[in-house]
Fold this protein.
Amino acid sequence: MSTKLESLEERIQIPDDVKVSLEGFRLKITGKLGSNEYDFSHMGIGLSLDGKEIVVRIPGNKRRSRAMLGTAVSIIENMLTGVTKGFTYKMKVVASHFPISVKVSGNEVIIENFLGERYKRRAKIVGNTKVVVKGEEVIVSGVDKYAVGQTAANIENATRIKKKDPRKFLDGIYVYKKMEGLEA
């Protein structure tokens, strides 16, 4: 008597203007805005290409398997959205005590005169993310959702205030809008 192991499967349509390649567990998606690459080897899923579809399979039918399948599908859909539309995070510079100066230099965002400090605060730009400063607005955009989000988080964390009352010292750089599409 043999028992067949159940597995879950989901299919994701590939848009016409997107090229997908799969080498082992490394999925590379290229579109009009650029390319994204992700290694799925740590997730325990099966990936394959079937014509104009990406097939994601995972053994089992338990809650953890369904969650892992949903995560993998979400990552692939974000990669497809990134190479076709892109991602943009808009950030606002809030300065009530001292005027903050924000500049982009190489792969860093440099924040000067934050709360009157003499040293410069630095935030790392991750991957091929583009950061543009327009007056009191900082626009972070790119094709990789995770790199764009991490860059915005690095900028926000660079202006985190410690040992002061957060109700009074609201100074900092904060994300106020997340959207699909490139802007800047």
